[in-house]
Amino acid sequence: MLIKCNNLYVSKDKSYKHPDILNFFKEKLKKYKKKIDSDEYKNIFLIKSNITQNCSNRTFDNRYNNYLISKGFKHIIPENYSVIELFNIINSAKNVIMSWGCCLYLNSVFINETANLLVIAHNGYILEYGKLGIQKNEITRINEMCPWTKCKKKLFIGNLESNLNDNTVLLLNSKILELTR
Hints:
Strand order of the largest sheet: 2-1-3-4-7
Distance between the termini: 50 Å
Structural class: alpha/beta
Order of helices and strands: HEHEHEHEHEEEH
Strand content: 15-25%
Radius of gyration: 17 Å
Largest sheet: 5 strands, parallel
Shape: globular
């Protein structure tokens, strides 16, 4: 048993809406900022896929990885890097694609203010991102998606299936073009 407790309390912490904590963290990390090969890490993606997870629930199949690599994005698997390395890679990127969930919540704070972000969301998370007003795969209240992340452009595609299909490829092509413009 991992945790045994008599009472469980859920915090209604809204500290993410107070950027002072995250800014403090980012400022501390900036002491370790290193020059990163800007071409290699110009376009990166961090997504929950079946090669990075032990389950297939709410993950994207490897065809998403192959597709994004074919579009010139480098696959970053966060657990393969230290926090400092991950900060430097993500902070150096110009265009970042992240999947909805912990990947986004934990890593988007490292995005620099001149970068562009595309969030892709599996249909298994619709109860989470649906609260933000999904209409035609767009979040109408986009800045609520990850308010702690300040970047040049935020885009969103939701309700995606695990398996990459032709319709999803067309949608991704359109959003990647918009992202990199």
